[in-house]
């Protein structure tokens, strides 16, 4: 099964609030994005945004240049329908983050909650970092959240790589200055706790 087929299957068979990573509002992400942008004029890309409500909250808060990228057309369609007429103000990209063509120096903020930890291949991780380096503006900010050292070893039937802050930052290298890291104990819809770890970097 391809990666795209796997995630289409997840989104076609489970409701929005039936996946482990669901949260009504991604509060940690929102706070970090607001730290990264002094106003709502910055261009923000949500990598692996899928059905997540981050795009809703960014639009509500006045962000006018928001892109949602996901490998699953099914997930993108759910988010578009939920946003209604506001969906027209969002840029939607369907593609694999390791191979999709992104515009150079396009984004002020790169946000990824729970995509990078699925990249178990060193080649895929390197391709991801090349995408970030190419498409984020100099001085732009990168927010990447993965499962922390005490997080799950699998998610949606797939192996993941768990990271401590220094290990995750090490994947990106000295071009990215680590400004902060945040640990979150995310509560799943069925009440269990998952440890997420966020790295907040600036590209220099």
Topology:
Blueprint: H1 3-13, H2 27-36, E1 43-47, H3 54-60, E2 65-70, H4 73-83, E3 90-94, E4 107-113, H5 122-135, E5 136-147, E6 154-155, E7 158-159, H6 165-172, E8 176-187, E9 193-203
Parallel strand pairs: 1-2, 1-4, 2-3, 4-5
Antiparallel strand pairs: 5-9, 6-7, 8-9
Detailed description of the structure:
With 204 residues, the chain is an alpha/beta fold. The protein has a single domain, classed as Vaccinia Virus protein VP39 (Rossmann fold). Helix content is 30%, strand content 30%. The chain has helices at residues 3-13, 27-36, 54-60, 73-83, 122-135, 165-172, and strands at residues 43-47, 65-70, 90-94, 107-113, 136-147, 154-155, 158-159, 176-187, 193-203. The strands form two sheets. A seven-stranded mixed β-sheet has the order 3-2-1-4-5-9-8, with helices on both faces. It has a two-stranded antiparallel ribbon with strand order 6-7. Helix 5 links the parallel strand 4 and strand 5 (136-147). The longest helix has 14 residues, at 122-135. The protein is globular and about 40 Å long. It starts with a helix and ends with a strand. The mean pLDDT is 91.
Q: Which short descriptors sum up this protein?
A:
alpha/beta; Rossmann fold; 7-stranded mixed beta sheet; two-stranded antiparallel ribbon; about 30% helix; globular
């Amino acid at each position: 099964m391809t990666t795209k087929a796997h995630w289409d299957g997840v989104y076609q068979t489970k409701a929005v609030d039936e996946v482990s990573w669901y949260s009504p509002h991604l509060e940690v992400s929102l706070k970090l994005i607001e730290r990264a942008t002094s106003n709502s004029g910055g261009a923000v890309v949500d990598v692996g945004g899928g059905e997540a409500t981050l795009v809703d909250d960014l639009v509500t808060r006045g962000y006018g240049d928001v892109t949602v990228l996901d490998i699953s057309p099914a997930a993108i369609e759910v988010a578009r329908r939920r946003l209604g007429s506001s969906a027209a103000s969002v840029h939607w990209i369907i593609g694999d983050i390791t191979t999709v063509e992104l515009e150079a120096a396009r984004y002020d903020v790169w946000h990824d909650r729970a995509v990078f930890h699925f990249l178990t291949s060193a080649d895929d991780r390197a391709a991801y970092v090349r995408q970030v380096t190419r498409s984020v503006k100099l001085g732009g900010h990168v927010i990447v959240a993965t499962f922390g050292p005490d997080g799950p070893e699998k998610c949606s039937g797939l192996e993941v790589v768990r990271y401590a802050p220094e290990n995750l930052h090490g994947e990106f290298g000295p071009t990215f200055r680590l400004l902060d890291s945040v640990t979150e104990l995310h509560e799943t819809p069925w009440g269990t706790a998952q440890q997420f770890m966020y790295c907040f970097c600036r590209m220099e």
